[in-house]
Amino acid sequence: MDHDEPMVQAKALVKRFGEFEAVRGIDVQVKRGEAFGFLGPNGAGKSSTMRMIATVSPRSDGDLKVLGMDPSVDGPKIRARLGVVPQQDNLDTELTVRQNLQVYGRYFGLSRAHVKEKAGELLEFAQLSDRENAEVEALSGGMKRRLTIARSLVNDPELLLLDEPTTGLDPQARHLLWDRLFRLKANGVTLIITTHYMDEAEQLCDRLVVMDNGRIVAEGSPSGLIAKYSTREVLELRFPPGEAAPDLSRFAERVEVLADRALLYTPQGEATLERVHAEGHRPVSSLVRRSSLEDVFLRLTGRSLVE
């Protein structure tokens, strides 16, 4: 493929399951070397899109090219150059850590000698060298996740697909995983990540789309989306329990009243707080913070839970 050609290009991409349309005509372009994110609530269509890109689920309509090829024609060729990290770890629990890498490498037709050397490199990369002979069952959740990512790199993929890579991990394990992904990107691997963690998307993604109900509702860099859909700062005010928040609409561009606090979206949080105090309002606590991708996400997709 041409070096400037997108790694993934989708136009009017659709995925149907019977009468249900999970992905409803989306356009996506992923450039070589970038970390691209699909952000959205459960059921938004993220995983269905990833499965089409991974060439394990045929598209129902629209156009899709992965690595310059058509998945419906060149599925095996594409899969040979992909790395896939599924939402759930599917390691072989009857094999050791090292054996998981070596056996998987043989599926790609790689020689025993090459796979043995590659497994050593990947164990070091995943910080699992000291556990190479351990059984998979004995590993922590974070270690299993790192091993799953290491396994996906056995074939030196140009494109790595990660579906909810850090779900269920503690903060230390998440940060260690992020560090490994930064290193991969620095080495030229293109990453596509689905996540519902806003901080993860903000940390890892150069560019992302927000999906909701099978459609793309916004696209851009994390900072660009914050600039477009939110304000520079947010002032959070809490009032005494059982006391309704006063009308604060005149103090900010947008005010959101939640059960336990009011959010005032404003360019200058401290100046807005001074005005609130000057007019005699006395919240029991106040917090000025910078606007985040979470504010954008909740504005675009709503706060109600989608099951």
Structure overview:
- With 307 residues, the chain is an alpha/beta fold.
- It folds into two domains: 8-219, Rossmann fold (3-Layer(aba) Sandwich), CATH 3.40.50.300; 231-291, Alpha-Beta Plaits (2-Layer Sandwich), CATH 3.30.70.
- The chain contains ten helices and 13 strands.
- The protein has a six-stranded mixed sheet with strand order 5-6-7-3-8-9, with helices on both faces.
- Strand 11 (254-257) and strand 12 (262-266) form a beta hairpin.
- Helix 3 (97-107) packs across helix 4 (112-125).
- The longest helix has 16 residues, at 171-186.
- The protein is globular.
- The two termini are 41 Å apart.
- The relative contact order is 0.14.
Low-pLDDT stretches: none
List the strand order in the largest sheet: 5-6-7-3-8-9
How much of the polypeptide forms β-strand, as a percent range?
25-35%
The fourth-level CATH homologous superfamily of the largest domain is P-loop containing nucleotide triphosphate hydrolases
Number of structurally distinct domains: 2
- Number of E-type strands: 13
The dominant shape is globular
What's the CATH architecture name of the largest domain?
A: 3-Layer(aba) Sandwich
Instruction: State mean pLDDT (0 to 100 scale).
Output: 93
Topology pattern, helix = H, strand = E? EEEHEHEHHHEHEHEEHEEEHEH
Oligomeric description of these chains: single chain
**How would a crystallographer describe the biggest sheet?**
6 strands, mixed
Give a short overview.
The chain folds into two domains: 8-219, Rossmann fold; 231-291, Alpha-Beta Plaits. The chain is built from ten helices and 13 strands. The protein has helices at 46-53, 71-79, 97-107, 112-125, 141-152, 171-186, 198-204, 222-229, 269-278, 293-301, and strands spanning 8-17, 20-30, 35-39, 61-66, 82-85, 159-163, 190-195, 207-212, 215-220, 233-238, 254-257, 262-266, 285-290.
